[in-house]
Amino acid sequence: MRDPVYLDYNATTPLDGRVLEAMLPYLKEHFGNPSSATHAYGWSAEAAVEAAREELAAAIGASPEEIFFTSGATEADNWALFGTLGPGDRLVTSPTEHEAILESALALARRGVEVVLLPVDRHGVVSPDALREALGEGAALVSIMLANNETGTVNPVRELAEVAHEHMVPFHTDAAQALGKLPLDVGVLGVDMMSLSAHKCCGPKGVGALYIRRRPRRVHPAPLLYGGGQERGLRSGTLNVPGIAGFGRAATLAAESLPGEAERMRDLRDLLWRELSGRVPDMLLNGDPERRLPNTLNVSFSGVAASDLLAELTAVAASSGSACASSDPGPSHVLLAMGLGEERARSSIRLSLGRFTTREDVLRAAEDIVRAVGTLRTLSG
Ligand SMILES: Cc1ncc(COP(=O)(O)O)c(C=O)c1O
Fold this sequence. Notes:
- By secondary structure, the chain is α/β, with parallel strands linked by helices.
- The chain has 2 domains: 5-14 and 258-380, Aspartate Aminotransferase, domain 1 (Alpha-Beta Complex), CATH 3.90.1150; 17-257, 3-Layer(aba) Sandwich (Aspartate Aminotransferase, domain 2).
- Helix content is 39%, strand content 13%.
- It has a 7-stranded mixed sheet with strand order 2-8-7-6-5-3-4, with helices on both faces. A 3-stranded antiparallel sheet has the order 9-10-12. A two-stranded parallel ribbon has the order 1-11.
- Residues 72-74, 77, 98, 100, 145, 149, 174, 176-177, 197, 208, 324 line the site of pyridoxal-5'-phosphate (PLP).
């Protein structure tokens, strides 16, 4: 039997072979600790980390000193929030954020931080006006994601950051889903902090970064991890050298392949939509039809529970939303926040494509989804 078509790129991506090549030397002969300043093993590891820092910085329009490597976007999100907020502070964020933000906000609320969740429209977009209104009462930090992992909806981050700055409030964005799918330039976006993750763009798992703007420097997040003082004293712990080397390469490849790759993914995603909508009645798109990641298609099949559909599919690997929460059978918090009813939220699946998805994959996946929805509707009808 053939492997199912992988349409869960927003959960994680396969490692690009070129990324693996960049990592291998640091898993083998160049195994040194980049903090070892007294010998060549340490120097070559350090050189790899600094080269990757330059690559990542170039991919997002930052300077290398603004990049701090972490264990992933979860850590970067936690750091951005816990490092800047304390009792009595006000955090303004949105209800469609990833759990890495929402659960951090919840934990901070228990420590006396006031958390304000902005409303989103029915496509999941946060409006600059809603932010302006919330900032009338001031805040210590605004955190709004760039692109949603479940629906692909893209927020107007540049405008939102401008509103925050009009009120002298620093702005953080979780851009874990954006690298390799959207043009990503911190100068254009104007954000003060940005979370990134390597495994969302054909890099390795367990490595990410927090970008912290230097000029003007509006935030000085305190460390989350204390110890040997790596990452200029702000993030202690021996660096994941092979992971970081892979992240640098993955970021360069992602940046180089845009915009052609975004267009290719959008064409395939739209082909999938046409194949399905032409053959399956009562299918609805979730998320913004226009302001959306080019690889993401979140759809509801009315009367069909997503959990049943995912189990019925034999040729497609997909999910009903965030991978972190997919053992939880509850409806997506993102879709509920968009005002979609519980029934619709429970009948939604996320199909996310990527670098290695082909036209043949899309046609094979569409065939299986059409069959599975038909089978389930016949059974329940
Ligand atoms: C929007 C968003 N933020 C944060 C994360 C967490 O990233 P990581 O797996 O690198 O911790 C993910 C992915 O799971 C994500 O999609």
